[in-house]
Amino acid sequence: MYFNWRYRNPDPYHVSVSNYERDKMERVMASLGFEKRFGSILEIGCGEGNMTVRLASIADRVLATDISDMAVRRTRQAASLFSNVEAQRLDLLSDEAPGRHDLVVASEVLYYFEKHQLPDVHERMTACVKKGGCVALIHARALADDEQGVELKKFGARTIHEMFIGDPRYSVVHDDIQPAYRMTVLRRVA
Ligand SMILES: C[S@@+](CC[C@H](N)C(=O)[O-])C[C@H]1O[C@@H](n2cnc3c(N)ncnc32)[C@H](O)[C@@H]1O
């Protein structure tokens, strides 16, 4: 499987050593500060758990999921000191929704899907959000669909985030457009 191959060596996306990723993480955590504490957080595509361990401090429970068992194993190790974190394998596109949560986080994940799969992905994520709960999307901006960003082939934050922004079941809580990435937090209102 492609993502297990990607994780054959630790930190394939250089998340733990990049200043850019560190700054992004701080902005993401600050922007989630509008809620004192979340009951339950579902993280989609948790990678090696870099964000999982931060989310653990703002929630009663975190369910970290990834399509790669290698990534899930590393997340379990990274979060081994947190009794409120569980990590499990989940393919967002084919596995059953793992319950409803107060916050669903997808960071740098959704551009791995094909464009025609996005409506299904959107519905699957929405099925995991409690009414009144939130979705946090963090994705690179891509030149393929934005005036600025990186050279992702298909699409980036604009296509992904605007799909949620245009859905009347959500209202935007926070939309932070940085030169290289965008972070959007939405509340499910219906
Ligand atoms: C670029 S990494 C991002 C990791 C982490 N969220 C971050 O922001 O650093 C993308 C992650 O999405 C996961 N992923 C890709 N397709 C997925 C799917 N269909 N279901 C769940 N996770 C998926 C990959 O295994 C990988 O860990």
Question: Gist?
Answer:
The protein is α/β, with parallel strands linked by helices and 190 residues long. It contains 6 helices and 7 strands, in the order ααβαβαββαβαββ.
3D architecture notes:
It is built from six helices and seven strands. The chain has a seven-stranded mixed sheet, sandwiched between helices. The longest helix is centred in the N-terminal third of the chain and has 13 residues, at 19-31. The protein is globular, with a radius of gyration of 15 Å. The chain has one domain: 3-Layer(aba) Sandwich (Rossmann fold). Helices cover 26% and strands 29% of the residues. Strand 4 (101-107), helix 5 and strand 5 (129-140) form a beta-alpha-beta unit. It is of the alpha/beta class and 190 residues long. It has helices at residues 2-6, 19-31, 52-55, 69-78, 118-126, 157-165, and strands at 38-44, 59-66, 85-89, 101-107, 129-140, 170-177, 181-188. Bound molecules: S-adenosylmethionine. S-adenosylmethionine binds next to loops.
